[in-house]
Design a protein that fits this description.
Number of strands: 5
Low-confidence stretches: none
CATH class: Alpha Beta
Strand order of the largest sheet: 3-2-1-4-5
CATH topology: Rossmann fold
Distance between the termini: 49 Å
Order of helices and strands: EHEHHEHEHHE
Strand content: 15-25%
CATH architecture: 3-Layer(aba) Sandwich
Largest sheet: 5 strands, parallel
Number of domains: 1
Radius of gyration: 16 Å
């Protein structure tokens, strides 16, 4: 059914959740995987306009992507990694089209209250910008016991 799945990674523990789902889906479909992380710090957002060099954060993000991609390859998956810079929702949607993906599989944290109302969420933005199907997997929040 799916041939190429784009997986946006946050460089957080939430990545394990979406990777588990995406690996299972890729195995069942024989799909290849494309990992993407969108660096969105000040340098990343202004890299092209101001002709800046990559920040240490961007180099760390690339190393993380390459490590995750190597792990997938070691497990037998056809996988590539892409580091993008700028607005996450926009860059994810553009990468999905550019990489000829037919599914975007991403983690979502659910509603965060007023912050989502004011700024929106990356998952919601991707859903609106992309014509490619989007699989959203909710990351389980860990609750702390109340005293």
């Amino acid at each position: 059914m799916f041939k190429k799945i784009l997986i946006p990674l946050e460089h957080t523990k939430a990545d394990a959740t979406i990777l588990a789902y995406a690996k299972e889906l890729a195995e069942s479909c024989g799909a290849s995987l494309v990992l993407i992380h969108v660096a969105d710090g000040w340098v990343a957002r202004n890299l092209k306009q101001l002709d800046l060099r990559e920040s240490q954060e961007m180099r760390d993000d690339l190393a993380y992507l390459e490590k995750e991609c190597a792990s997938l390859r070691d497990a037998g998956f056809d996988a590539d990694a892409v580091l993008a810079a700028g607005e996450p929702g926009k860059e994810i949607a553009l990468a999905a089209k550019r990489e000829n993906c037919d599914l975007i599989a991403m983690a979502t944290h659910g509603h965060k209250g007023l912050a989502d109302v004011v700024r929106g969420s990356v998952a919601n933005e991707v859903r609106h910008l992309s014509m490619i199907p989007v699989l959203m997997v909710r990351v389980e929040r860990r609750r702390t016991p109340r005293d």
